[in-house]
Amino acid sequence: MSNRALLEVIALDVEDAVAARAGGADRLELVTDMAADGLTPSRETFAAIREAVDIPLRVMLRRADGFSAGSAEDLERLVAEARALRAEGAEEFVLGFLNPDGGLDLAAVEALLAELDGCRWTFHRAIDRAGDRDQLRKALAELPGLDTYLTAGSAAGVGEGLPVLLAEAEAAKAGAPGYEPRILVGGGLALSHLPVLCEAGIDAFHIGGAARPSGWGRPVSAAAVADWRAVLG
Asked: How do residues 45-66 score in pLDDT, each as one tens digit?
């Protein structure tokens, strides 16, 4: 690849962040509680990581497992957390909410964006549970700051989602409305998936478990991250 591909690594704490950076990560996704598939970290954890490493980091905005924003009170609490993280210096975020029918919860997204004030952000794997991916992309197209979709192409992971990912990469090349944001592939991503994805022009990759050969109970392995960096160049 002519340009360096983006490698984003999930970090839970400072130890993860330092190891990920040492291995060659370009960016971190900061979360807590992977048992719930990644929730909003504390302001203190963000501050500690921001002090420890100088690479970009995106902070998850999500209060509970699943892709619902929850009750009005839940959303208010999440908005307050976003405000606190902004006050601490957070500049990049990850979010995304669906209604029970699989449609975009635009009201919840816009409530958070009002606090983010133009910050760059990723719409995460809620897209893989959406009833209509194309419609979701078009509904989000004019929102400020959206520059990335984190997706496996399928709720079942990259192995199942490859045809969707390749089709969306083609749509992006063709300039289809709603396909301007970068495709960041993650969710069951394996090194064996990279050749076909890179050939399609996809240039951003997200790993969590793959950076932890000993499991989520152990920190990020700088060596594991370095293996991905070596393949991506």
From this structure: 999 999 999 999 999 999 999 9
Amino acid in the structure at residue 60: M
Closest CA to 191 of 151, 231, 150, 233: 231
- Taking each helix axis from N to C terminus, what angle separates 43-52 and 72-88, rounded to the nearest 10 degrees? 30
The residues, ordered by sequence, that sit 6+ positions from 178 with a Cβ below 8 Å of its Cβ are 134, 137, 138, 140, 141
Q: CA 134 → CA 38, 140, 185, 204, distances in Å?
A: 25, 10, 17, 20
Separation between Cα atoms, residue 185 and residue 56, nearest integer Å: 18
CA distance 62 to 40: 5
Query: What burial class does residue 6 get, using C-beta atoms within 10 Å of its C-beta: 0-12 exposed, 13-18 middle, 19+ buried?
Result: middle
User: What does the pLDDT read at residue 1?
Assistant: 37
**84: nearest Cα among 35, 124, 46:** 46
Tell me the three state secondary structure of residue 183.
Answer: strand
Give the count of beta carbons closer than 10 Å to the beta carbon of residue 141: 13
User: What is the signed CA dihedral for 142, 38, 64, 107, rounded to 10 degrees?
Assistant: 0
- Measured distance CA(214)–CA(223) in Å, rounded: 12
CA distance 86 to 118: 11
